[in-house]
Request: fold
Amino acid sequence: MPTVAPLDIDGHCITAVFLDDVPHFAFADGAVHRLDHGHKTVQANDGLLTAFHDTANDRLVTGGEDGKVFSVKANGVVEELATAGRKWVTSVAAGPQGAIAYGVGKSAFVRFADGKTKEFQHPRTVEGLAFAPKGMRFGVARYNGATLHFPATEGKPTELEWAGAHTGVAFSPDGNFLVTTMQENALHGWKLADGKHMRMSGYPAKVKSLSWSARGKWLASSGAPAAIVWPFQAKDGPMGKAPLELGTRGNTMVTAVACHPSEDVVAIGYEDGMVIAARFADAKEVLLRRPGKGAITALAWDREERRVAFGSATGDCGIIDITA
Reply:
């Protein structure tokens, strides 16, 4: 049985990440906790709503109801990157070459590493943001679809239409597909080469957590009493193919997923606080953590592939050492 080092904090954990191999936990009150030779805390936003791990620059980018965007580094240094006045920053994303994007109302902003900022206006509210894995391109989830921009050029954006409220967005690691989470219990996807649609429905609840496998051949998702893992090996993605269902536990809902950094394995968190790991090839399961006080809201693997950080809606967080 793997060992668990617990960290109990009062509040709702939004994101768990490793920065320079130091586990960090971002909370809804704007505090970022870390386990670095003891429990340490820094304050980012005054009320934190969104957070994103910038893997290239090893920083946590946060945005919140105070209208500010911050960078948090592993050494505890907090830097203000942008401000939107008194408007809420509802989504953030980290891109290549030190760029970040953040959503405020109907506008998406891109801040480049040199501090210059460009605004991209939309007819409806910006709900989610993500950068493509290659090149300076980013996607915006919005009502009735998604919009793709090339912020370094003045070219016309690409509009991907599909009726309904799209709340989050993710590119596949190879850049061939774009997938959005929806207000209804479904995912929607586009093959970017030709705009072909992919509808992934049948979830009993909203999908709030997505994770691509290391080589992008699978997309794991929450929103059901199992991790729903869609196959993306074929040129048209999962169309006409059934997903894997891993870690089924009666009526206990999966609330968070995180694919292993190099193997076809996914860590699965549940609404009762349990965490398991499941293998795609044969659905073999390993218990990582027994049920806790609240639903798992965040999961992250470290670079050495031996630890998993987890956070919950009630603040019981921790580190699972799977080699113990």
